[in-house]
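Subgroup meeting minutes
Present: P.N., E.W., G.H.
Scribe: E.W.

1. P.N. recapped why we're keeping a running log of single-chain structure predictions: easier to compare across weeks, and new members can see raw inputs and outputs side by side.
2. G.H. added today's entry (606 aa).
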Amino acid sequence: MTIRLLPPELVNRIAAGEVVERPASALKELVENAIDAGARRIDIHLREGGRSLIAVEDDGEGMSAEELALAVERHATSKLPSDDLVHIGTLGFRGEALPSIASVSRLAITSRKRGSDEAWSLAVEGGAKGRPQPAARSAGTRVEVRDLFFATPARLKFLKAPRTELNHAEEAVRRLAMAHPAIGFGLADEDRVVLRLAAAGEDLLADPAAARLARLGAIMGRDFADNALAIDALREGLRLSGHAGLPTLNRATADLQFLFVNGRPVRDRLLQGAVRGAYQDFLARDRHPLLALFLEIPPAEVDVNVHPAKAEVRFRDPGLVRGLIVGALRHALAAAGHRASTTVAAAALGSFRAPEPAFAGRGFAPPPRGIPHRLAEQAAAAFAPLDGFDRPSAAPDRAPVSGGVSGGTEDRTAYPLGAARAQLHETYILAQTGDGLVIVDQHAAHERLVYERMKTALAERGVARQGLLIPEVVELEAPAVVRLVQRAPELAELGLVLEGFGPGAVVVREVPALLGPTDAKGLVRDLADELAELGDAVSLKERLEHVCGSMACHGSVRAGRRLAPAEMDALLRQMEATPHSGQCNHGRPTYVELKLADIERLFGRR
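Output recorded in log:
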């Protein structure tokens, strides 16, 4: 078989197959070029989800006629001024995006260099380049990509419906916009405006964290902005910033978890493992928090060129990055104390409101906005405090709750969770605050308190170990053995003592006593798989925490037990002093807070 060089047009189409998977891929490359060119406004127009037209216009630096002709040549770039492949400070440098796109589409570029009196345009059709021609436009660049993949029909027929391609394009623009709040973005499909994000003003730009949160709120929703915890941590030259949602603000999927490395949006399984490790005490396994994290790392410590589309990166020290993410998230969650997300109260208020359509067309009149005076008096009498409520209950099944009790003359409504006023159905504590009321699930709240005390005790005294009468030999592949032996000191801290037993096995000598009778072989094999995939022994920690959670559940105040007022107040004070007490071990809220203004609206007073 004869060896030959492929024609340049075919080489460009092969490169396009790596870089341009769908219209969103081409759009991402063009928007990144605009950002690198110093644009302050980027407007995008699509047709058929980008299949027939992708137009990206910016007010960036622009290009001269000579630069325009070079821009569509392979391996031509302005992003490596010193030919340094290590210290990369832009969003890309591969130099293949424009020629690759041009090889499978009809490309037209019109540009005017900032400070120049002339504008130029260039057309490339299926890889055939024309000559720069004089044109008219303001400073900046406009790139039009028409009939994407017309030169590669095989790729064209695999595109999805225009609506699906538009969704992918919108997602690509949103990710880039999150990291650049100083740039305004506009996205339209046909005649419909899909996305419009204004650039942050000078007042917001003076506070980068506030500007970033405003942009994240515009993209991820107001609920995220209202319930986001600020993240700012430094470790060994790396800085992690951004925002993470409270555990009670969660979703069934991880599609609202974002990681940016030096301003570049990336998809990395390292983030998923780190987030899971940080939130594992607060969320069920099928629930996921919302967050956007921005990692600033020396360019020499990260390889951004491991993927043709620059969607993945490789860290020199992934353990350092993971530890920084986990530590920063846990610190922020601990600092949140007993705070729960505002969506909890919104959901509670929503359940009180009867839908108006239920009265429509059925001969019923809508309920009056206000309550008649006589009914209001009857309601006030019905809910007046019962005689003797302030005296401790004599119920024999009362469960004691340890902790300080507020003094008799102290205004307990000034506390964040207020003063206990009643117990409903022997399950819920009703407390009055200075500006509303709080409803507490007594079992879920005390379960979290007991669980946190158990975690503290484990951290102080370590995990008790149970020695095996006959050490268990577990046969594994050689790489798995190496990974386990390297992490043996960390596993020993969790109560699992093992050591190498030749090149293809480990011997288990002790296991965590909390687990009781356990399948040592299955446990070790699971740990080996997790070390290979996530770089951390998650399952062992989760098993220990599951046991602690079960013990906390059985040792806490049960639903259906009557509590004295002093005991209810003690529980509230402990919640205020205990981190993470706003949610149970599964991410459900332990209390709901309703403001007086919201309650008044329910009764038509506002």
